[in-house]
Amino acid sequence: MSNPPRWPQAIAHNIDCIAIGRRSAKAATVWIADGSNFAGQSNMTLALDRYLDSMREIYAALPADWRVFLEHKL
């Protein structure tokens, strides 16, 4: 049995952080891992696609005057 995907939780968490940060922040740092621990353990093309899709959702939630910093493990 496989585990359910976790990236929807990560997206929701980042959007929640943006909502909280609206009080005093002007930037968000986003870190979304590819879900692997070792080279060759995951499909890098699918991981990149999920990363880009996730960032589109998170970026859409940013206020217009915010900056976003990216941290990733790919």
Structural class: alpha+beta
Helix content: 40-55%
- Strands of the biggest beta sheet: in what spatial order? 1-2
Rg to the nearest angstrom?
Answer: 14 Å
* Helical segment count: 2
H/E series: HEHE
Tell me the total number of β-strands.
Answer: 2
Task: Write down the overall geometry.
Answer: elongated
The CA-CA distance between the termini, in Å, is 25 Å
Q: Can you tell me the residue ranges where pLDDT is under 50 for at least 5 consecutive residues?
A: none
Strand content: 15-25%
Describe, in plain words, how this protein is organized in 3D.
With 74 residues, this protein is α+β, with helices and mostly antiparallel strands. It is 45% helix and 19% strand. The chain contains 2 helices and 2 strands, in the order H-E-H-E. The protein has helices at residues 7-21, 44-61, and strands at residues 27-33, 67-73. Strands 1-2 form a two-stranded parallel ribbon. Helix 1 runs parallel beside helix 2. The longest helix is centred in the C-terminal third of the chain and has 18 residues, at 44-61. The chain is elongated, with a radius of gyration of 14 Å. It starts with 6 loop residues before the first helix and ends with a strand. The model has no long low-confidence stretch (mean pLDDT 86).
